Amino acid sequence: MKFPLALLKRFLTTDATLEHISATLTAIGLEVDGIEDKAAELKPFVVAEILEATRHPQADKLQVCTVKAAQGTLQIVCGAPNARAGIKVALANIGSIIPTNGMEIKKAAVRGVESHGMLCSARELGLGDDHEGIMELPLDAAIGTPLVDVLGMVDTAVLDVNITANRGDCMGVYGIARDLAAAGLGTLVTYPTPEIAGSNETYPIRIEDTDACPAFIGRVIRGVRNGASPEWLQRVLTASGMRPISVLVDITNYVTLAFGRPSHVYDLAKLSGAIVVRRAREGEEVLALNDKTYRLSPQACVIADDSGAIGIGGIMGGVSTSVSETTTDILLEIALFNPERIAKTGRALQIDSDARTRFERGVPSQGLEIADRHITSTILQLAGGAAGAPMLAGEIPKHKIEIAFSPAAINALGGTAIEESRMREILVALGLRDHGEHMHPPSWRHDIHQPADLAEEVLRIVGYDAIPLVSLPKPTGMAAPALDATQRRTSLSRRALAARGYHETYGWGFCSAAQAEAFGGQSEALELLNPISADLSVMRPNLLPHLLEAARQNHARGNPNAALFEVGATFVDVTPNGQRSVAAGLRMGLRDALHWTGAPNADVFDVKADALAVLEAAGFDTAKTQTARSAPAWYHPGRSGGFTLGPKQVLATFGELHPATLKALGIDFPVMAFEVHLDAIPAVKPAKRKAFSASGFQAAARDFAFVVDQDMASGELLKAVHAAEKTLLREVTIFDIYTGKGIEDGKKSIALTVTMQAADRTLTDADIEAVAQAIITSARKLGAVLR
């Protein structure tokens, strides 16, 4: 909700600065979304006087003005037709920023004549639409006086406050002022209830839809003058984003903005018969004040007379009975409407009016007569006329809520030590009635109905930042981990494979008997007695059947290059330990995207690296594994292998799938696959993490080439080299394996790069030589000979 600071100060006597007011509003729960301060934008502009204005030598429409300013005489080129000697004008000195376009005033040459500033129009300063000439200021304005002082621009800042749905009382600026006064930022201005002297004339009103409108007050006012509203009222409405229309309409808009109390005025001459508040008839139409015609349903509440619906109750009036400049007699409406009905009708019709916004948040049920007198007296003051008597239709709902007041409970909820007297002072300032052990909230506070609400009111006014910071008690024991080892490994495996370019799949826990047979078969005990279908008749012994089916469908649909994985359960028997957790994946087609430099197909070494990545993600030190040449029968012999821990504990298998296995599943293209048995990975004790420390001393690298038997695994040689030295050895990598000329039959050459580094010194030749000899000795134990 937008409103000018000047309006707030009509209701709040305060010396607080704009910044202090803004900060306090946000602190008490009325967040300030933005501030528009026109006076701040115009602060650099000052009064100056044109002493002389002569025609520009190079341009007929320009004048060269000699201007008297506070700092002396200036020469300024101006194109305004009204620029002439003897007038006071608004001067923008060099360095000023024009608020409407952001242009910075600089010293410039205009058609060969220097100009040292700018003389501004009202439009350029954002003060109006006039741009035919420069602003002419009062002749008694002193030179050098700030423009904002001359124009009387005091408290012109506009605040945009975000009002939450539960604070309908703050949809009026008076409610905001009440909160600020309670927070100690000033004194709330109280208004006496005016007495209206007039005739006993009334207008017939009846309510048929009491659910939508429980009470309606109407008052006839005759002899009004519906001209333009006073300048101060127009300024308030314009600053708040409303368009001034006429004094009668502007008064209703002002009361809505100021007090959160929507009202409406009808042209009495345009009414036909009694006012009736009823449900709309099916298909009934209303031409509303926004010049749109709405087709209504019985859900809507309408204000009607003998001619039909003349307004949508609580949302928007109609054109047929609207006031105009010729209106002299009016009927004033002050009513209550059901928030739920208003909200439903507003959503159905897609109307966002100021009245709807306030009624659906709830306006005060009490004080309807007082509001009538306030609005009537304002109309009489600004538009003249004579008032009739108020006519109340329906019944004003009673409002009596009693809430137990416990200072101890409030302090306990807030963790505070606020004095009881301070609590009572705050609650009374917010409008609650103090009855000792109980508090009675006013009708404008629909959100206060339980003791916790009292605590919230006290705490937000005191300030949440005033609540002392207290550390939570430390737990006495160690909380149990949320995930067990298998669950952690499952999550880490998924993340590792996704990072390697795999796409995750999810398959059934069942498969067909033929699929199970291709992967070793399944025991009779794991056949389903009542399967979903024949293709899902046994518990799956392996994850690969479903992955291969996904690969087959991808290939058939034009996607021959894919990497798919699943982490899930397989079933080997009916015992409690018969369910195993496995991470399996496959690659087919190209390893990477097609490229002009070439793109090799995925091979055995790719899935081997994938299996190692899963083992590492699960927290296992892969240097402790042994590489096995054997693999299950569904892998291609000679193009597959595995990782084991000892001779019997299989951790993973990998390789190219056997052509016969693929053929049994209807696949005629090569597929590389791996399986990692997460349950078989030994539990890893969490090690204490050490702070990272990098050596500042230079590393040294040496290459070695060893001749070994053709059938020796490279990993065996790597382990032997790693075991040779534990302190200085940093990294060992294989960079070449060679057979051919110079290497006898049955042998091969494995070339290694060994990196050495000390943490406390630069290695000497003796250090490096000692490591080299240790490596050669360790390799010789395997039968490796230095080449």
Brief summary of the model shown:
The protein is of the alpha+beta class.
Q: Which tags fit this structure?
A:
787 residues, alpha+beta, 7-stranded mixed beta sheet, 5-stranded antiparallel beta sheet, 20 helices, 26% helix, 26% strand
List strands and helices in order, with pairings.
Elements: E1 2-4, H1 5-11, E2 12-13, H2 18-27, E3 31-36, H3 38-41, E4 46-55, E5 63-69, E6 72-78, E7 88-92, E8 108-110, E9 113-115, E10 118-119, H4 147-150, E11 158-162, H5 173-182, E12 187-188, E13 205-207, E14 215-222, H6 231-239, H7 247-259, E15 264-267, E16 275-279, E17 285-287, E18 293-295, E19 301-305, E20 308-312, E21 316-317, E22 329-336, H8 339-349, H9 354-359, H10 368-383, E23 386-387, E24 391-394, E25 403-404, H11 407-414, H12 420-429, E26 433-435, E27 438-440, H13 451-462, H14 485-499, E28 503-504, E29 510-511, H15 513-518, E30 538-539, H16 544-556, E31 562-571, E32 579-588, H17 604-617, E33 626-628, E34 635-645, E35 649-657, H18 659-664, E36 672-677, E37 700-709, H19 714-724, E38 729-738, E39 747-756, H20 765-780, E40 785-786
Parallel strand pairs: 13-16, 28-31
Antiparallel strand pairs: 1-11, 2-12, 3-11, 4-5, 4-7, 5-6, 7-10, 8-9, 14-22, 14-23, 14-24, 15-22, 16-19, 17-18, 19-20, 20-21, 25-27, 26-27, 29-30, 31-32, 32-36, 33-34, 34-35, 35-36, 37-39, 37-40, 38-39
What does the model show?
The strands form eleven sheets. Strands 28-31-32-36-35-34-33 form a seven-stranded mixed sheet, with helices on both faces. It has a five-stranded antiparallel sheet with strand order 6-5-4-7-10. The protein has a five-stranded mixed sheet with strand order 13-16-19-20-21. The protein is elongated and about 125 Å long. It has 20 helices and 40 strands. The model has no long low-confidence stretch (mean pLDDT 92). The protein is an alpha+beta fold. The two termini are 86 Å apart. Helix 7 runs antiparallel to helix 10.
